[in-house]
Each structure stands twice: as structure tokens, then as C-alpha cells.
Amino acid sequence: MDVMNLIEQPIKVTEWQQTYTYDSGIHSGVNTCVPSVSSKGITEEDEACGRQYMLKKTTTYTQAVPQSQGDLDYQMSTTARAKRVREAMCPGVTGEDSSLLVTQVEGQTTNLQRLAEPSQLLKSAIVHLINYQDDAELATRALPELTKLLNDEDPVCEGPGRAGGRTGRGEVVVTKAAMIVNQLSKKEASRRALMGSPQLVAAVVRTMQNTSDLDTARCTTSILHNLSHHREGLLAIFKSGGIPALVRMLSSPVESVLFYAITTLHNLLLYQEGAKMAVRLADGLQKMVPLLNKNNPKFLAITTDCLQLLAYGNQESKLIILANGGPQALVHIMRNYSYEKLLWTTSRVLKVLSVCPSNKPAIVEAGGMQALGKHLTSNSPRLVQNCLWTLRNLSDVATKQEGLESVLKILVNQLSVDDVNVLTCATGTLSNLTCNNSKNKTLVTQNSGVEALIHAILCAGDKDDITEPAICALRHLTSRHPEAEMAQNSVRLNYGIPAIVKLLNQPNQWPLVKATIGLIRNLALCPANHAPLQEAAVIPRLVQLLVKAHQDAQRHMAAGTQQPYTDGVRMEEIVEGCTGALHILARDPMNRMEIFRLNTIPLFVQLLYSSVENIQRVAAGVLCELAQDKEAADTIDAEGASAPLMELLHSHNEGTATYAAAVLFRISEDKNPDYRKRVSVELTNSLFKHDPAAWEAAQSMIPINEPYADDMDATYRPMYSSDMPLDPLEMHMDMDGDYPIDTYSDGLRPPYPTADHMLA
Questions:
Q1: Residues 14 and 114 in one domain
Q2: Do 444 and 512 sit in the same domain of this protein?
Q3: CB 654 within 8 A of CB 687
Q4: Where are the ARM repeats (predicted)?
Q5: In this structure, which of 10, 97, 733, 746 has its CB flanked by the most CB atoms within 10 Å?
Q6: Mind listing the pLDDT tens digit for each residue in 337-354?
Q7: How many domains does the chain have?
Q8: Alpha-carbon 621 to chain mean position
């Protein structure tokens, strides 16, 4: 049968709708009442209905009414009711010249209209069923001929034409066939028939790939787009080699072709197994990244989501995006657009790229921190979440970035919320941005950052993902910037010391314990904090940790094995941290007495033999403070500290040598003159020959103002990769009515794991 004739067949359905009125009563209103035994027709049935209505509703008629007038009123009311029934049950059946009494009150539904609803639904269902069956039959019968027409290979004639050259008969035939198939693909029944024909889908793909005609390209991409709404269609496109052809169409100058191609690829990436690899092999990323320069927000939203699907968990894809200028284009979108869905999808791509060591600097240098920060106050929770995670991941390479004042203030404000993800990201970002950055430390301190961080610690409970970066941030804020003393006092005034000291208890993770030790050391620099720290029993806890860590380190040394890392922390670091904190605490006389009574001097003397220079320095420092008391000085001497201290006089570390000299000078005060003279000569020859100031310092027991180990103010480790964030807000449907695809959400994607996510 001729294809064009097949297309016209649905007209017969319309004719049937207009003429077929006596089969079931749907259109005519026949038999809307129970049929009478006498079979007198419609008038008698209407009369029966009318009489029943009058008996029920009317009580004003009496025998006094003249018979002729009553018959006339009765006939008029019966006729009007019959017409109303027909009009309600079957609209359009009554004549245009009929005049009906209006019984409906505006804004209300009449009983007749309510009774007519099932009838209208039945009518609609029958019409749809007939149309569906006709569509399916039409498509099935037309498929072989349409496939043949799409494969028409009549050569193209040369000459001027619409698309750069006049098309020959073959191109015209192919274009018309593509238009017909496109129309068929818009109806569900015929679309399913098309999906069931691999030959036709392959012909469409081949035509799309080879055509130079813009209309043909538009029709063929539209066909594949319509088929991609179904899993069977996605599979048919994939098996027919549609992905390379669709990637090729991303270079089309026609906006509609681009839109159909990218949405079809998006559906394939979402739901078709193997599609991601096929797109990568077809150089899809190289074609998609330049599309970020378009200015259609909805088109960009789909494109960016495609990039996220391709880059997620694939390092090579991330590097391709970088090589094609992806970070700069993505940051531009975040800076200049306001469409929420676009910002959300773009932030997802940046979140994935933010764990790539090569992409991170590029994003930061393009102004990514500032662009992401401007959306932290958005009304969209999912956008805020993505921006927070991305900022967290980028923050360790953005410690020297300028212009982050507003971001820091917003992050401080975010610490007041109770959301675990928000607190995790905000504390981690603040920890990194305040690392070795005096300006940022001062800004956060002046904007109530200390109080907010303590609040976060109190709310975190046993969540180390929040507590550890919060402690690290406080450690940074309490040292080496103009407002450090203000921060040290603020911790005490906001009742943070008891909560901080409790974190020294096991079984907390060693990274958290190490950070807490460093914070306590900084808090001890403020004399006003000594009493609260002592009340919180910080000294016994530090000594207990010191003994445990030293024993572990000695055990490995005796076994001849290398000191292992426990959760990324070596026990020597704990030994150094505890000893350094006790050194600062020992400046207070009461604390010195408590440290001495805990029988710590033998351990400190033993630490003088350590192979770690920093441990030698802090051990000499704490002995220097303890030696101010005669009883402690005698104990130091009795433990045989003189020999290692004499060796440390020759240390390359000036602080270590000075501390050793001060201890030696103190313990020699009660010795006989000959011993004191020998010590004095040794000190002069080895250390103070060219440094009178150091000699004065040793004699007056002035503590050396050398900064604490720099590694205690290190960048917080970037534990949270954007490839696997805690992001439950994304696990819901995200349909948008004006999107030309069936599903645009994460609903079918697996949930992100909650483990430590270092791998990208």
C-alpha cells in the first residue's frame, strides 16, 4: 500500500467520531433510561423519566390546573430535560439552534454532568484505543518501505540548492521518508513499532551520519530523541552505532539538531550500559566541552550533566575536560547564570573535577572559589551542598587566594546549622583556608569564628569528620596572627576547654588526638587558660598519651621495624606534641609541680636520646622549665641528664642547644666550684662564645620564643572526594516540565558511599 495513503488513514477515525452515533448510545443518548416494555421509542422513555422526576420534585400541581396548560408545561419541561441529558452525556449531538434552560449554578457541577463523566471517559478510551491500533498497524505496514526509502542512494546532483547544493531525487526521497518516520515516532504505538525494527533504526542512524541536508539532520536526530525515551529505543540506538553519529551531530550549526543530539546522548549516558565508554571512544568529551560556550541555560544544563556522567570516576575524562578549557568555562557559568538547574549540574561537574590534582589549581586560578562562594546563600539546598563540597575539596590549594572574605564569613555562619554535611564541609574549608594565612585567621577570629567552631564541636558528638577539622581550625586561629591571643581567650570564655580536653580520651582517632594536643599547646600560651586546663585534668591525660605513644615507638624500634602510621599519624608525632604541650604548661608553677609529681622526668631524660631533633628540643624545653624548682633539678641530675645535655650543646638547632645549656646551668648551681667551673667552660666554648644573648638567656631562664613545629599547622587533609560525597539531597526525582527528556534526575543512580573517599 502507498505510504502516503497509509498516513491518511487516521482521517477515517475522525469521520467515525462524527457519524457513528447509534451503536451504544454514547453519542445519541438512546437508552439513557431503562427500556420500556411497549418499545414506544425515545419520547415514551423521556416521558417516563419526566413523570418520575415530577413525582419526586414537584408538589405544587393540583387538579385545579387546566388540562391543556398542564400538558403544555409538561411537554416543554420533558423536552428540555431530554436535551440536557443528551448534551451532558454526548456533547455536540444536539442542534446548534436548540435553546436549553440553564440549570447550572456558576462554579458548581450539576448531577447530570457528574453522571456524564464515566460516559465521556469511555468515549475517550474507545477513541484512543482505535487510534492506538491504527497507529501501530500503520507503522508496522509502512516499516519495510520506509526503510527502503531511507536507504535510497540516488546520487546528489550538482548545482545551487537550499543546503549549499541542489539535492537530487534520492536526497528528496530520503528527506520525505525521514519526515514521515519522525511523525510516526511522536506517537507511542507507532514509536514502539519503530523500536522493534533494528533495520529502520540503523537506516535512520546511517542517514543522520551521511546527510548534508539540514532538514534531514533535524528529522533524524528528532527520531532518535523520541526513541530514547524508552529503554528498548536506547538499546536499538546503541546497537545501531548511534552514539558516534550523535557525537558527530554535536558539530551541527542548527540549534534544534544540537538539542536533540545532546538530550539523546544524555538519556543514553543515564540508562544505557556501555554508553559512557562509547561516547569517550567517539571523542564525545572533546565535542561537548566547547558547547559550554553556548548561552541557552537548559541546553547547558544537559551538557554539563553529560560531562559529570562521563568524568565521574574516570581520571582520563577529567584530564580531557581540563585540556579543552573545561574548568574556565564551568566557572564562567557559575559566575554569570542564575538558572538553578544549570548551577546545580555545573557544580556537580566542578565537584567531580575538584578531586583531580591537575584540575584543582585550574579551577582555583579561574576564580572558582569566589564563584562557588556566591551561591552559598542560595535557596536551593542541593546547590549549596554541592558548592560546599567543592569548596572543601579545593580549599587545600587555595590557602593563598585573595578575595575570600565573604566566603569565610558565610562559612562561619554555616557553622550554626545542625546539618552534618554542611558542618563537615564548612569546618574542613575553614581549617584549610586558615592554614598559614594570617589574614584569614584574623578575619575569622574577628567574625566570631572561634565561638562558631566550638558550637560545631559541641554539636558534632562522636563525628570525627566534623570535630577534627574544627579542632584544626581552632589550632590555626590560636597561633601566629595578630588576634591569636583574642582567640585563645575566646575558647575559654565560650566554655570550650572542657570539651576540647575530653577529646584526648581514647578511642578517638589519632589524627583528632594529634590536632587536639596542638590546640592545647596553643591555649597554654595564654596564662589565663592555665587554671581551666588544670581543672579539666589536661596534664594527666597528656602524660598518659605520652607514655603510651613512647612505648609503642620503643617497641617497634626494639623489633627493628619501621614505625608504622596509625590512621596517618606516627607515634613520634604524638610524643613530640604531648611533650611540647607539657613544656608550655610547665611555665605555670602549679602545673610544674603536677608534672613533676607524675614522675615524668625519667621519660623526659630518655627523650633526650631520641633520633628525632624536634623531640630532643621539646624534651630539653620541658626540662628547662622543670629545672627552675630545686627538687626537680636534683631529680634531673640524678637521672643522668648531664651527659645527653652536654651532647645537645653542639646541636645545630639553636633552641635545643640553648635549652640544654639552661638546664645544665641550673643543675650545676649546687655543685662544688670545680664542677661549676667545668660546666661554665664547656658552655662558653661550645655555645656562647659568639652569642652573649644566648648566654644571658640561659642564665636568666628566659624561654626561647621559637615557634612551635610548623607541621602542627599543616593543611587539613582533603579526605572528601566529590566523586563520592554524602549528598542525600540528590536522591530524588528532579523533573522539570519544560525539559525534552523523560527523566532528569539522580533517581536511577546508585547512592554515594559514606566512606572516606580519597579515590576519584
A1: yes
A2: no
A3: no
A4: 199-242, 241-283, 283-325, 325-368, 406-448, 448-490, 495-538, 599-641
A5: 746
A6: 999 999 999 999 999 999
A7: 3
A8: 48
